[in-house]
Amino acid sequence: MAKTIFILLLLFTSFIEATEAGQKVLAILSIPIAPYEQAIKGFEHVYGSEIQRLFISESKEKDVQKMIREIRPDMVLAVGRDALLIAGQIKTIPVVYCMVLNPRSILSGEKNISGVSMNLPPEKQLSELLKVLPAVHHIGLLYDPDQIGNFVQGVRDAAVKMDINLTATAVHRSRDVPLLLNTMKGKAGVFWMLPDITVITPETVESILLFSLENNMPILTFSEQYLELGAMLSIGIDPFDIGCQAGEIAKKIFSGNAVKDVQHVDARKALISINLKIAGKIGMTIDKEVIRNIRVIQ
Question: Which class is 122-236+271-297 in CATH?
């Protein structure tokens, strides 16, 4: 009964259409979490209209597909990986995705899909790192080639251009992470913790944080949550700006551009945070001018 009411409420919630084109956009997302909502707000900011949300966590995939057909949007905004997996089955209308890490691992050349990944370009991340730690010349990282091999190749290329030595070690099993960490002793000046599900597990995170403290090696990570656990620096994405990028893509499509001709793009804005307490513990001194421009966690 509750599920039926839930569906009916969704189906009878009216769209507020864009003032210019009048196209209806339906956002589908797994759960109502703050980063997803921020991304939708960014989309609405650029698109010029509020859009309807459809939460997919309470329904089976076939039920979601049925609801989308009944709502009959002109475009679907897929927010998050789960939403893109479902939206990838849609063939008749444009789909724009956002808040998806490594979307190319999901997609297979669909001509009606474009969007914005959560990946920040390697050059951007390395540039931000050097602003905080300009003396860094050697970075170490672990990665699973099957998960983020393409991204790490981009890191290699960027490191060469920026005269940074990179030790990138392939990992195929999570249990090998502690042993491979030890091979970086005395080599890397920073350990880069990438969003790789093979490398990052509750057990391996503990090993990485301990390795950092024992060897006075700062950790660069992708999420502020790891700063609270013991990482020193995070370079993350701005969900609102990613939503703005998705809105820009939607406007291009509704202006007559073929979806297949609208480029998939990476996130463009970085949010930098630092844990000064951890920096002090491992003997790192950060320039005061740099600190003024980033979020500080004590």
Answer: alpha beta
Q: Which residues contact 21 (CB under 8 A, 6 or more apart)?
A: 254
The pTM of the full predicted model, rounded to 2 decimals, is 0.82
CA–CA distance, 82 with 104 (Å, rounded to integer): 14
Question: The tokens of 137 are what?
Answer: 């010349």
The residues near 161 (Cβ < 8 Å, ≥ 6 apart) are 123
Written as tens digits, the pLDDT of the chain (298 aa) is 444 334 434 443 444 334 344 689 999 998 899 999 999 999 999 999 999 999 987 667 778 888 888 999 999 999 999 999 999 999 999 999 999 988 988 898 899 999 999 999 999 999 999 999 999 999 999 999 988 898 999 999 999 999 999 999 999 999 999 999 999 998 899 999 999 999 999 999 999 999 999 999 999 999 999 999 999 999 999 999 999 999 999 999 999 999 999 999 999 999 999 999 999 999 999 999 999 989 998 7
What are the domain boundaries of the chain? 2-117+239-270, 122-236+271-297
2-117+239-270 and 122-236+271-297 have identical folds: yes
Name the architecture of domain 2-117+239-270: 3-Layer(aba) Sandwich (3.40)
Of 212, 222, 156, nearest in space to 182 by CA: 212
